[in-house]
Write a structure and sequence with these properties.
The complex is a heterodimer of chains A (438) and B (165). By secondary structure, chain A is of the alpha+beta class. Chain A has 4 helices and 29 strands. Chain A has 2 domains: 119 residues, TolB, N-terminal domain (Rossmann fold), CATH 3.40.50; 259 residues, TolB, C-terminal domain (Neuraminidase, 6 Propeller), CATH 2.120.10.30. Chain B is globular, with a radius of gyration of 24 Å. Classes of the chains: A alpha+beta (438), B alpha+beta (165). At the A-B interface, α1, β17, β20 and β21 of A face α1, α3 and β4 of B.
Chain lengths: 438, 165
């Protein structure tokens, strides 16, 4: 072997090593670059102890005293439902050194007091958040609203407390819309996330189904058989006015808003087999997303607006698929069971859906996109369907017939803390969680 | 050595371009296809369903298996009888109303009901009934014929009702 050949060989080996290093390095980089940024998500971190003191009533008016009690109850409940805190009830609003010292001994870090006042026109709530260790006020703020809006006033304060202490958004100012059949027809109802303020939205004596809240919170889209065809309607909540968006012959169902609220992907049949289409808010067709004889339905947008998850039975039974909103690039996510009603999480890393195993019931599951792992949330509690995410991505609201009839429940995404949303006669279906409403 | 580095970088560039989305199928509608099924095409626009419809006693309801839209031998018999009536009463327009049982989600069942109605429309047109006489609508699981959570109720709810208008 002459020298030249040797040098060439060494060069080749060098090149090969370099090549391998680059390949390994860049393949890991591109593996991450292909995905969006994912944040870890956990519903139950270690809870901090928080003490709530007496809510002082300034004007001593009987009505104000009653409202102060209610407001305290609402805020306390909001903080409990947030699952961030353990609540310690304190009867006084004394923030003296002795009081704070005794709280400190028990491991409490935050002390909340408030005063409520009727200023002759509005109700004024002043919240003080005190650091137990230093005795200093971390934050205080006054809220002013009409007396009748005391629930909203309290929820506003709760969300701000959560933001100041935990640095996370609170969901106390959110609502849930759902369908109920207690009138023998199917009508839309809306309720605060804590189960209060139940209100009926439609009185059509017809079938109204599949409500979805708009990303801005001002509108609800739903399908109604009001004119003997399943048309897509929009309800403007501020103007209390409704109109038809899409009225193609046949199905105009399972509408899902794009994150900017300007487009809707829905299932249309138009006298043919149902397929997914993209329309604008005037109902004009922008794009046909799928074209086949299989069932393609239940679309849900990714929060970045670039992809949708939907279900299709093209493999023989309904499974979850993802596709680009520009059309194409269809990928299958799940491989077994009957999968349906997917909902993409607000942070983009998870998809909640319902899955039925052979001879089993429908159970809530969460598909984790980075790890491709499926976590089951419900066990042996009959059917659990149609999950939708809370605005902070820590809870799901869903339909279940575990009590013997269909009702709406809320569950933390680690499977803990299930609660029934509201007591209402009849069967309730298909909830949709609003964004945070102002 | 510089040459090699440059060469390696070019390689890396090509590689990263190549491996972007490497595990993902490309192209529009690149799903796995299970057969040579084609989307139904009818020559005429479907008539509107936005009218008052009545159940016609001469036209029988057709029933289906769970999660299926295939026609059974029994339903083909029913459809032939119905078709004979429709051919001899050529002025009658019909609405095919697809329904499902309560199992599965609202969304899935709406599409399943639509598919059932379309299968029957396809069959009628094969038997010579013009497609512009036939409208289709799906109620999914929203309008059960029979209440109850048992096989008897379910089997009565997996149906296409034929109404005239």
């Amino acid at each position: 072997m002459n020298l030249n050949v040797k040098i060439n060989l060494i060069k080749k080996i060098h090149f090969l090593i370099l090549y391998i290093i680059f390949v390994i390095f860049f393949s890991t980089v591109t593996a991450y670059a292909n995905n969006d940024i994912y944040l870890s998500l956990c519903a139950t971190t270690k809870r901090s102890d928080i003490a709530i003191g007496h809510f002082n009533v300034v004007d001593k008016n009987e009505n104000t005293i009653k409202l102060a009690k209610l407001i305290k109850k609402i805020i306390k409940n909001d903080l409990v439902l947030s699952r961030y805190f353990n609540i310690i009830q304190i009867v006084s609003n004394d923030d003296s050194k002795e009081q704070l010292f005794s709280l400190r001994k028990n491991g409490t870090t935050i002390f909340i007091t408030a005063s409520v006042n009727d200023d002759g026109c509005d109700l004024v709530l002043e919240i003080k958040v005190i650091d137990v260790f230093t005795g200093e006020i971390i934050w205080k703020h006054s809220y002013k609203h009409k007396h009748s809006n005391y629930r909203y006033l309290a929820h506003k304060a709760s969300d701000e407390i959560i933001r100041r202490i935990k640095g996370e958004i609170g969901i106390a100012c959110s609502k849930i819309v759902f369908v109920n059949d207690s009138t023998r027809f199917k009508e839309l109802y809306v309720v605060d996330y804590d189960g209060y303020n139940l209100r009926r939205l439609t009185k059509d004596n017809k079938i109204n189904i599949l409500p979805k809240w708009s990303p801005g919170g001002g509108q609800i889209i739903y399908t109604s058989y009001l004119y003997n065809n399943p048309d897509l309607f929009v309800l403007d909540l501020l103007e209390n006015k409704r109109s038809i968006i899409s009225k193609y012959q046949g199905l105009n169902v399972t509408g899902s808003f794009s994150p900017d609220g300007k487009k809707i992907i829905l299932t249309l049949s138009k006298g043919r087999y149902p397929n997914l289409y993209m329309i604008n808010m005037r109902g004009e067709l922008l794009r046909r997303m799928t074209e086949n004889v299989y069932i393609d339905t239940s679309p849900s947008f990714a929060p970045n607006g670039q992809e949708i998850v939907f279900i299709s039975d093209r493999s023989g039974y309904p499974q979850l698929y993802i596709m680009n909103v520009s059309g194409g690039n269809v990928r299958r996510l799940t491989t077994n069971g009957y999968c349906d009603s997917p909902a993409w999480s607000p942070r983009g890393d998870k998809i909640a859906f319902t899955m039925k195993q052979a001879r089993g019931n429908y159970d809530l599951c969460i598909y984790d996109l980075p790890s491709t792992k499926v976590t089951r949330l419900t066990y042996n509690q009959r059917n659990n369907e149609n999950p939708t995410w809370s605005p902070d991505g820590r809870f799901l609201t869903f339909y279940s017939n575990r009590s013997g009839r269909g009702e709406i429940y809320i569950i933390a995404i680690d499977g803990s803390g299930t609660r029934k949303l509201v007591e209402i006669p009849g069967t309730s279906y298909t909830p949709s969680w609003s964004p945070i409403l102002s | 050595m510089k040459k090699f580095l440059l060469f390696a970088l070019i390689n890396v560039f090509i590689f990263t371009m190549g491996c972007k989305r490497q595990n993902i199928k490309q192209g529009p509608y690149s799903y796995e296809s299970t057969g040579a099924e084609k989307t139904a095409t009818f020559d005429d626009e479907e008539p509107s369903t936005r009218v008052d419809s009545n159940k016609d006693i001469n036209l029988k309801t057709v029933y289906f298996e769970f999660d299926k839209s295939d026609l059974t031998e029994c339903s083909i018999e029913t459809l032939k009888e119905n078709a004979a009536y429709l051919i001899s009463n050529s002025k009658i327009k019909i609405i095919l109303e697809g329904h499902t049982d309560e199992r599965g989600t609202t969304e899935y069942n709406l599409s399943l009901g639509q598919r059932r109605a379309l299968r029957i429309k396809e069959y009628y047109t094969k038997l010579g009934i013009s497609s512009n006489r036939i409208a289709t609508i799906s109620y999914g699981k929203e309008k059960p014929a029979e209440l109850g959570s048992n096989e008897l109720a379910w089997s009565k709810n997996r149906r296409v009702e034929i109404k005239k208008y």
